[in-house]
């Protein structure tokens, strides 16, 4: 019986820049080795943070308007204090207040009907969220059941492939299923990624619509590796497409690099029990007990071999059905292991705050830079590296390792600004046409 997934499937690659060539591919990298000091953060906010680009991105215009004046910002301090409902009238005020507060990080919230800083002077019931970017959050924690290369705060090129595949699946869905165009991924600074969707249709979604979209995208809701997924057939077109994206990488990532089921007990509790047939499950458990230590790839093939023996003893009219069920079981396993695993709370509510792009992760010193599918965590600029680069090049930001990410974000912002102008022009034309018709 041919295996569902060919072992020769192409793999994901993410090449680090030449400056990182001394990093061994696949070697775990601790993401908790350096935390910036208060003076480090002051330096960063004074010389490196792209306040203008962030301001224009959130305002959807170079000139201050409602989208920025009524936007909530929250600041988190190293003392443990957390200050919400900050808002700013200009990019100058935005920069000055962040530099004055010198937070470890700051977060972006919703646009309200009134400036959030006026919250204490009005009735709380009068403050209502109007819009915010639709966001998705993916964290390596949710893949811990499947990754063996790293644990805890560690991450490497091997396990980062989980995040890369998640980005790929979500990107295709955003474009093809929802028609969104203006979205960008941002490295969380340690072992995850955030997707910010800035299309107008996404920003004005009410919470009910956000939850509906989340329900559509969030397929693997139970993180328990022993929990059988058991998807309904025929698969939804989104799932069928996602399966085709994930399938070529399953053998390389799960079977070979992670070797998730080499642990016999785990294999018997999850892989064997994923089968639709109790007889096959028991035979697999028996085989793996008698022949311990078989690789995940061998165990995957064992499913086909033992299933073939069972099929030979079935009536002919049941053989095709049995084979189809086994194929579906294997498809479910591929989706369960590799499909995006989302932090649902981040997406559900308009008022939810999320760390701003280009913040510094307080534990790692990594800059939370915008990324593409070619990114790997060791590529992220560290604040200490940027400080050394600035010292050696005469404080020229454009000559630091941060510059490529600044250019990527600036290009994204300019696209949004152009799209916003086009959208506003279209709205004025429609309003004018309605007035004439009346």
From TrEMBL:
<keyword id="KW-0804">Transcription</keyword>
<dbReference type="GO" id="GO:0046872">
    <property type="term" value="F:metal ion binding"/>
</dbReference>
<keyword id="KW-0548">Nucleotidyltransferase</keyword>
<feature type="region of interest" description="Disordered">
    <location>
        <begin position="1"/>
        <end position="34"/>
    </location>
</feature>
<dbReference type="InterPro" id="IPR002755">
    <property type="entry name" value="DNA_primase_S"/>
</dbReference>
<dbReference type="InterPro" id="IPR014052">
    <property type="entry name" value="DNA_primase_ssu_euk/arc"/>
</dbReference>
<protein>
    <recommendedName>
        <fullName>DNA primase</fullName>
        <ecNumber>2.7.7.-</ecNumber>
    </recommendedName>
</protein>
<dbReference type="GO" id="GO:0005658">
    <property type="term" value="C:alpha DNA polymerase:primase complex"/>
</dbReference>
<comment type="similarity">
    <text>Belongs to the eukaryotic-type primase small subunit family.</text>
</comment>
<dbReference type="GO" id="GO:0006269">
    <property type="term" value="P:DNA replication, synthesis of primer"/>
</dbReference>
<keyword id="KW-0862">Zinc</keyword>
<keyword id="KW-0235">DNA replication</keyword>
<dbReference type="Pfam" id="PF01896">
    <property type="entry name" value="DNA_primase_S"/>
</dbReference>
<keyword id="KW-0479">Metal-binding</keyword>
<keyword id="KW-0808">Transferase</keyword>
<feature type="compositionally biased region" description="Low complexity">
    <location>
        <begin position="8"/>
        <end position="30"/>
    </location>
</feature>
<dbReference type="GO" id="GO:0003899">
    <property type="term" value="F:DNA-directed RNA polymerase activity"/>
</dbReference>
<keyword id="KW-0240">DNA-directed RNA polymerase</keyword>
<keyword id="KW-0639">Primosome</keyword>
């Amino acid at each position: 019986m041919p295996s569902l997934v060919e072992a020769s499937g192409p793999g994901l690659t993410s090449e680090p820049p030449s400056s990182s060539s001394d990093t061994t591919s696949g070697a775990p990298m601790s993401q908790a080795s350096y935390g910036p000091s208060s003076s480090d953060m002051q330096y960063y906010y004074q010389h490196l943070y792209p306040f203008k680009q962030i301001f224009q991105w959130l305002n959807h215009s170079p000139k201050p308007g409602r989208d920025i004046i009524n936007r909530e910002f929250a600041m988190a301090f190293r003392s443990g204090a957390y200050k919400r409902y900050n808002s700013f009238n200009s990019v100058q005020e935005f920069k000055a207040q962040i530099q004055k507060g010198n937070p470890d990080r700051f977060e972006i919230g919703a646009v309200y009907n009134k400036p959030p800083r006026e919250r204490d002077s009005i009735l709380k019931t009068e403050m209502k969220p109007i819009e915010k970017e639709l966001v998705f959050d993916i964290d390596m924690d949710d893949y811990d059941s499947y990754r063996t290369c790293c644990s805890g705060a560690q991450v490497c090129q091997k396990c980062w492939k989980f995040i890369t595949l998640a980005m790929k699946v979500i990107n295709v869905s955003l474009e093809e299923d929802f028609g969104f165009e203006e979205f960008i991924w941002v490295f969380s600074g340690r072992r995850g990624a955030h997707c910010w969707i800035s299309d107008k249709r996404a920003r004005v979604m009410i919470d009910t619509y956000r939850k509906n979209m989340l329900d559509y995208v969030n397929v693997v809701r139970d993180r328990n590796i022993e929990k059988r997924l058991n998807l309904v057939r025929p698969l939804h077109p989104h799932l069928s497409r996602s399966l085709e994206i994930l399938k070529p990488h399953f053998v390389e990532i799960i079977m070979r690099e992670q070797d998730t089921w080499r642990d016999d007990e785990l294999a018997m509790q999850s892989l064997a029990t994923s089968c639709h047939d109790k007889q096959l499950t028991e035979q697999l458990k028996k085989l793996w007990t008698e022949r311990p230590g078989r690789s995940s790839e061998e165990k995957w093939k064992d499913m086909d071999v033992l299933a073939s023996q069972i099929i030979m003893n079935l009536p002919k009219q049941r053989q095709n059905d049995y084979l189809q069920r086994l194929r579906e079981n294997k498809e479910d396993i591929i989706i369960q292991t590799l499909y995006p695993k989302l932090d649902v709370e981040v997406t559900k509510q308009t008022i939810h705050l999320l760390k701003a792009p280009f913040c510094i992760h307080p534990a790692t010193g990594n800059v939370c830079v915008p990324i593409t599918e070619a990114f790997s965590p060791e590529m992220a600029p560290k604040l200490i590296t940027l400080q050394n680069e600035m010292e050696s090049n005469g404080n020229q930001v454009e000559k630091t390792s941060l510059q490529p990410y600044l250019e990527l974000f600036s290009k994204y912002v300019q696209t949004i600004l152009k799209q916003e102008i086009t959208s506003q022009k279209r709205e004025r034309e429609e309003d004018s046409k309605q007035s004439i018709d009346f």
